[in-house]
Amino acid sequence: MMAVAQKRKPRIALRALSVAIAGALLGGIAGVPKPSAATTERVVTNYRTGLALSGYDPVGYFTASKPVIGSAKFEASFAGATWRFANAGNRAAFLDDPEIYAPVFGGYDPTGVARGVAVPGHPEVWLIINARLYLFHEPKTRDAFLKTPDAYLAAAKRQWATVQSTLVE
What range does the domain containing 8 cover? Predict the structure, then answer.
């Protein structure tokens, strides 16, 4: 009889542990919040190349009014990312005032940031509003933003600190 009782204890303990793990994964146990992991970088970078804006020149959006591919000959580091430029003049302009040329919200889609979510923007889906560059995940989110840009920007600014806290430095 002792042997039967000893076999049950490990099974009961294992079952309890399984239930506890499942509960934690589905939303926390007894008020303990589900842990949140850092999701991505502070500046959107191409995961294959490590380049900000996937290698597009951030100054080119302003000077050429379109995305312009940068060159490996003209690179600079800013905010933990590598940025490429079409020429030395664009690199110099960026380094003089990177906050002006770098995309707002680190290149995350402002419609996602407004919802409290870090959704990477795409360098070919963009707008310049009030002399600042914004990237969008897809044309649909850019179109939604254009309907009420002030409301999206106000919500995104309120949420940005929270969204940043989920990002890897």
Answer: 1-35
